[in-house]
Every structure is written in structure tokens, then in C-alpha cells.
Amino acid sequence: MKLHWSPKSPYVRKVMVCAHELGLVDRLELVRSVAAMLKPNAVLMHDNPLSKIPTLVLDDGLVLFDSAVICEYLNELGGGSLFPQRGADKWPALRWHAFGDGVLDACILWRNEREREQPLPALIDAFERKVCASLQRLDDEAQALSEAPFSIGQVAVACALGYLDYRFDSLGWRAMAPRLAAWHAQVCMRPSFQRTEPVDG
Ligand SMILES: N[C@@H](CCC(=O)N[C@@H](CS)C(=O)NCC(=O)O)C(=O)O
Q1: In testing the pocket of ligand 1, which one of 6, 11, 45, 152 has its CB within 8 Å of the most ligand atoms?
Q2: In whole angstroms, what is the distance from residue 104 CA to residue 13 CA?
Q3: How far lies 162's CA from each of 59, 75, 85, 121, in Å?
Q4: Ligand 1 centroid, distance to 11 Cα (angstroms)
């Protein structure tokens, strides 16, 4: 399987964390692909016309995106339990997955805006408010995150927090969400997170 990959992308990180958790890393051929909103990548678009990473090309030619679909595919392939199928664990896991991805989506738009020559203050303010409100809500849920079985929900939330460390260091998110920070520190001890720390280059 070929994975369009970058060591910086938090969505790719979700996929790689799942691959490590499921023992599937050796089955992935990593292809370094640059994806930037303003620079569609022709090679990547051959596989994914949306020019986004992660994109997974299966051996039979089927191309999977986005990260949610790829993570679920890997979970099924590896016979894992990262996507609880039913019962009380399913909806909290899927909600945290959407919550983590939503925080990431806001952060990516926020970063794009702040790097423009003349960022729009109202947009910057709106992204900051949404991300900070999400951190406070997740802080209230820190105990639930630690008590629930480890799933795609925790993977997504922890990858979003890792992205804040990587790109929004000055936000000082730990001071706003100390219980969440303690939970995150525990999750970061997992080998799957240690082996997927974002790096420049
Ligand atoms: N919802 C997608 C988001 C993926 C995404 O936006 N990835 C970024 C890299 S971190 C990207 O490919 N950006 C290029 C673009 O938006 O054109 C997923 O979960 O895979």
C-alpha cells in the first residue's frame, strides 16, 4: 500500500498512529508528498484530485481518503478495536474523532489566515475563540477520555493537541486545559505517538 505522507501533517499522523497501534507500519510504502492549499500537487492529484494528504493507494488500485476513511480501513485490516462497532463506546469515540478533526480544521484555517500578508482580524479572533472553547470543553472531558477504551477518538484529540504544540506553541494551551494536558502527557508515552512526532523537513 502506498501512503502519500508528510511528517508534518496532523491528519497523516492520525493514520500513522493507527498503523503503529495495529502493527501495520511495515505494510505502508511512504511517499513524501507536499500538499499545500494554494499549490495543487499534480502527482498527488493523479491519485487524489483534491490534492490532500493522507491518501492511501491500495494494492488493487483503489484509492482511499480522507484520514477518517483510511484509519477505519487500517483498523479493519489489522483486526483492531480502534473503531468500536457498537455499544456505549461507539458514539463517544466517533464524537471525539470528529472533535479532534474539527479542532485541526480550525487550526489549519487559522494558520493559513495568520500567514497571509494582511490577516483578517475578525477571522483570526473567531478561530482563536473556537479553538479555546474546544480546549475548555475537552478539559472537562479529560477524565472520560482517560477512562474510555483507547480508540480513534483519543488518537484524533491527541493529534490535534500535538499540532497545537507544533504550530501554536505561543497559545499556551496547557494553562487553559491542565487536566487535558495531564491526559495528553500519558497518551504521548505510547510508542505510536513517540514514533510519529511532527518534524520539519
Ligand atoms: N479532512 C482531511 C484533511 C486533510 C488535509 O487537509 N490535509 C492537509 C495537509 S495537513 C492538506 O492536504 N492540505 C492541502 C490542501 O488543502 O490543498 C483528512 O482528514 O484527511
Answers
A1: 11
A2: 12
A3: 31, 22, 27, 25
A4: 7
| Total residues belonging to the chain | 201
Q: Which helix (H) or strand (E) holds 86?
A: none
Whole-number pLDDT of residue 77: 98
Does residue 131 contact residue 110 with C-beta atoms inside 8 Å? yes
Our answer on whether the CB atom of 35 is closer than 6 Å to any ligand 1 atom is yes
| The three three-digit cell numbers of residue 58, written as one number | 491500495
Describe the crossing of helices 10-22 and 90-114 by its angle, rounded to 10 degrees.
Answer: 150
Atom of ligand 1 nearest to the CA of 54: 20
Q: Where are the alpha helices (DSSP H) in 10-89?
A: 10-22, 42-47, 67-77
Using one digit for the tens of pLDDT, what is the confidence trace for 63-105? Answer: 999 999 999 999 999 999 999 998 899 999 999 999 999 999 9
Mean pLDDT of 111-119: 95
Q: What is residue 87's predicted lDDT score, i.e. its pLDDT?
A: 83
28 burial type by CB count under 10 A (0-12 exposed, 13-18 middle, 19+ buried): middle
Q: Is the CB of 160 under 6 A from ligand 1?
A: no
9 lines ligand 1 (CB under 6 A): yes
Give the Cα separation of 124 and 171 in Å (integer): 13
DSSP single-letter state for residue 36: B
Task: Work out which ligand 1 atom sits closest to the CA atom of 66.
Answer: 20
